[in-house]
């Protein structure tokens, strides 16, 4: 797997997403390439915009017509990607990537992977100025739309309030919701949103994004920390506070994971220094169960 730094260095989100997803799929068993747990259901005629890799060439040779192989999962699954674009996602790791940089790569790779599985994919970028929402679609033009929304997303302000988020849960639509967030919130806004989506849409895969320098507290000596969402500052000696920081962080992470699973979310913690393969593996696993 390519490291997130190398993917980011491409400065080309569509290419980075393809490289990450194809590299991951190449390492999987050949039978998984067309979707974990998918069983053949039927053929349907080819339509402009369909993925040519799903054509049954043998049948075309025999009948002189073009048909695609479909599966039950292919025709029924909707994937709704949620990206937290609050200001805390601007936190930068020691590898030079911000959480938002990593999240863009990850969400783009998941969108590519879902599209290759035949899913209808949608995206909502969550920020206080309002939601940027692309409804789920399975057509060939959806990926460029998603990539553009991700490339132009900026992390600002605090997580959106309940009023801003209300349209997301106004309609009941069966979907696999995938949320990428650092879960920094004031009044359980993220937890409340995902709880409502769990009730209205079904399965929720929560990918909790943490920077390596947060997890391992790699800071040294006197340090000034600034809350990216409130502007508050805190001065401390990193060497003296390391043990206390890590103790409190582990307690918070443990509580966060327990609460997420108690609400029925499929919760996984990610590190911005790690390749994207674990998240893609968890996505395919959750997808197979949906």
UniProtKB/TrEMBL annotation:
> PANTHER family in the record, alphabetically?
BLL2464 PROTEIN, DUF58 DOMAIN-CONTAINING PROTEIN
One Pfam family, short name please? DUF58
Q: Which SUPFAM superfamilies match?
A: vWA-like (SSF53300)
Q: Which domain of life is it from?
A: Bacteria
Q: What name does UniProt use for this protein?
A: DUF58 domain-containing protein
**Species:** Hymenobacter telluris
Q: Which InterPro entries match?
A: DUF58, vWFA_dom_sf
Which lineage do the record's taxonomy fields give for this organism? Answer: Bacteria, Pseudomonadati, Bacteroidota, Cytophagia, Cytophagales
For the DUF58 domain, which residue ranges apply? 42-248
């Amino acid at each position: 797997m390519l490291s997130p730094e190398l993917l980011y260095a491409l400065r080309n989100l569509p290419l980075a997403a393809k490289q990450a997803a194809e590299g991951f799929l190449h390492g999987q068993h050949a039978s998984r390439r067309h979707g974990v747990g998918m069983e053949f259901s039927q053929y349907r005629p080819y339509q402009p915009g369909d993925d040519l890799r799903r054509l049954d060439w043998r049948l075309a040779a025999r009948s002189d017509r073009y048909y695609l192989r479909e599966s039950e999962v292919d025709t029924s699954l909707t994937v709704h990607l949620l990206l937290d674009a609050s200001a805390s996602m601007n936190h930068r790791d020691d590898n030079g990537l911000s959480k938002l940089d990593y999240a863009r790569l990850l969400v783009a790779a998941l969108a590519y992977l879902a599209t290759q599985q035949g899913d209808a994919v949608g995206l909502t970028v969550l920020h206080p100025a309002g939601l940027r929402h692309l409804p789920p679609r399975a057509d060939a033009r959806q990926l460029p739309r998603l990539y553009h929304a991700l490339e132009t997303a900026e992390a600002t302000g605090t997580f959106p309030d309940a009023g801003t988020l209300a349209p997301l849960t106004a309609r009941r639509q069966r979907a696999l919701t995938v949320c990428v967030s650092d879960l920094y919130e004031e009044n359980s806004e993220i937890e409340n949103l995902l709880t409502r989506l769990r009730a209205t849409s079904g399965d929720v895969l929560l990918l909790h994004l943490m920077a390596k320098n947060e997890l391992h507290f790699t800071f040294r000596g006197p340090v000034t920390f600034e809350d990216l969402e409130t502007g508050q500052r805190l001065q401390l000696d990193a060497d003296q506070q390391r043990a206390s920081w890590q103790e409190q962080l582990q307690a918070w992470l443990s509580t966060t994971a327990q609460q997420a699973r108690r609400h029925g979310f499929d919760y996984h913690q990610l590190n911005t220094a790690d390749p994207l393969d674990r998240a893609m593996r968890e996505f395919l696993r959750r997808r197979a169960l949906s």
